[in-house]
Each structure stands twice: as structure tokens, then as C-alpha cells.
Amino acid sequence: EQRIADFVSANAVCGKRGKLSTKTAQRRVLLIGEPYYFEYPAALSFHELPDFFRRFLAKHDLERFNSILCNVYDERSSKIGRHQDDVAVLAKGEVVSLSLARNSCDRHKRLALMLFASPQGEERIQLRHGVEHAVRFDALDDKRDDRSHEVSSTLAPRVNLTLR
């Protein structure tokens, strides 16, 4: 896991394109595989990944995805503002998120806080999800693709892998 976080961190660059250019999206990015929605300033194919990365994907049953957006959150100010993913462009309608602590001393801590909100027309429902080291999170598990979400705070430096 540490090698994955180090590899992504070494290859990620500041991502300030399209909707990623908001003031609250201060992070570094690396795209692996097919672009999800935007073009990214740093991208690799799955064939360019080192063997240890491919073994990691296999171990966690993540080989079926064709896109991994890697986000590096280096500082507490690193976050993502409220947004809604366009699930229509997803091949299988599936989104999985996995975060890895950058520092081994942070592996037992909550790494970030993610908030989910219902559409504006409904009674406002908010769900909070604590992001923990190496814990897989199926982002659309509740089958509600109309819910917006945000990462409101980074509590410890981390690398997030969002697989689509």
C-alpha cells in the first residue's frame, strides 16, 4: 500500500482543468486508463503500471475498472467542493473509492470526511462518511446517482484512488 501511495504521489501533478479548476479542488491528480470526463495533465495506461500496482488491484478485486483517477491530498486545505458525478458516462455504473495514508503513522486515523446530500427538491438529507486507510467504499452502493457529494476536510495526507 505504501508503494502505491508513493508511486501515485511521485507521478501526480496539479490538476486545474475544466470543473477541476475550482478554488476548493486543491490537489494533485494522475489518471490511469480511460478518461472519465475531463482530460488530465498526467496520465498513464494500465500497461505502464509497475507490477506491484497491478498486484494491488488484483488483490483488492479492482481489475475490472477501466479508469482510476488518483487524487493526492497533501494538506489539510486539500478538498473537493460539492459536485455530482455524471454516471451516464460510466461503463458499468460503478464507482469505488479507496484512500491510502501517505504516512504510516496515519493509518489508524480517519483521513477525511465525505458529505453526501440529497437533491434540492427533496427534504435535505445529509450523510457523513469517514474515510479510513485502505477501506473500500462503494460510492453508488445505495443506487442513488442523484446525490451530490464533497470531501469537506482532509485530516491527514492521503492518496485517493477512484475507480470507474
Notable traits:
164 residues; mainly beta; seven-stranded mixed beta sheet; four-stranded antiparallel beta sheet; 11 strands
- Strand fraction equals 25-35%
Please tally the β strands and state the result.
11
Distance between the termini: 20 Å
Shape annotation: globular
Derived from helix and strand composition plus strand pairing, the structural class reads mainly beta
What kind of sheet is the major sheet?
7 strands, mixed
Q: What is the average of the pLDDT values?
A: 77
Based on CA atoms alone, the radius of gyration comes out at: 15 Å
| Helix and strand run | HEEEHEEEEEEEE
Helix content: 10-25%
Pick out the low-confidence regions: 17-21
Count of alpha/pi helices: 2
Account of the 3D structure:
With 164 residues, the protein is mainly beta. Helix content is 12%, strand content 35%. The chain is built from two helices and eleven strands. Strands 1, 2, 3, 4, 6, 9 and 11 form a seven-stranded mixed sheet that branches. A hairpin with an 8-residue loop joins strand 7 and strand 8. The longest helix has 10 residues. The protein is globular, with a radius of gyration of 15 Å. About 3% of the residues have low confidence.
How are the elements arranged and paired?
Elements: H1 2-11, E1 13-14, E2 28-33, E3 43-44, H2 51-59, E4 67-73, E5 80-83, E6 96-101, E7 110-117, E8 126-132, E9 137-138, E10 148-154, E11 158-163
